[in-house]
Structure formats: structure tokens, C-alpha cells
User: What shape does this take?
Amino acid sequence: MNRIEEILKDFLPELGSAAQPYLNHATRVFFLAKKLDSDNSLNDEKLAIACAFHDLGIWMENTWNYLEPSEKLCSEHLDAIGKSAWTDEILMMIEQHHKLLPYHGTFETSVELFRKADLVDFSGGLIRFGISKKEYSQLTRQFPLLGFHGILFQSFKHHLKKKPWKPFPMVKL
Assistant: This one.
């Protein structure tokens, strides 16, 4: 069991059929961030926590406006494990992970590496920030997509029926 799976174990039943696809996505994002981290500046435990919680609110709150619910779940987890001092950095990683333009500000290095890693995986490797096609392909063989993008699309369609005027509430410039 990897660290992300340990963190998510209590949520896996609620994730239902999305459990393994989400776990694989979170794990791919972890390894992509580590690959992008040429200075080896990321803390593995902080990164694993951010990866585990970053999209979790989609399923736990059944919403496409999921950043705040994901951050709340993460904050509760950090309090429970005695790592409240990490809250600001990890929540900033989650809050900014759909930012379209580069992030500049507090915790810039970890936030940017996380943002880029998630974008590589969300784009299915079309956007790579220097990660080779071969490296991404190897990662998806090790941690298969398992329909993750289709699961997201179904959630997105459900959201559009309720709030067509705000299709991407989690995206920031």
C-alpha cells in the first residue's frame, strides 16, 4: 500500500467505482511532481497529502466546485495527524492546482510543481513540461488511467445540468 492509498483508505468506499481511477491519478500526480522537481525540494509526505486530497471533494461532496470541500477534508486530516503546521502550504497547493497561468506567491515552488504535475496528468500527457512521452506512458502503464477522464466528464456533465453558467468554478487565471 503506498502512502496516498494509506491516506485515502477511509474514503475509498465512498469513492465507489472512482476509487482506483482516482487513487491512480493521485499517484501519477505524485510521481510527476517528483519528476519535475529537479532541485528535490518537495517534501514527500506533504506532496502525498496534497495528491490524496486535491480532487476528493468531487466525490465526497458530489460537486464540481470541489476545491473548498477538498481543502476542508485535507485540513481535518492534517489536524488529526498533528501536522497543522503544514496546512497553509498544502491548502495553497490544492487551491491553485487548476490555475491556468504560473503561480507566483507563498510556497511558489511546491504549488507550481504540483500545478504542473496535475496538468500533465489531466491533459493525458499532452502538456508535459519536459516529461517525455515515454516517461508518461510508463507511468500510465504502472498506474493505469482506468477511465479517470471519463469519470470526470460524467461528473462535469452532471454539474453542467445544475450550473451551466459556471462550468469551471475551480479554474483560476
Observations:
- The chain has a mean pLDDT of 93.
- The CA atoms of residues 110 and 142 lie 24 Å apart.
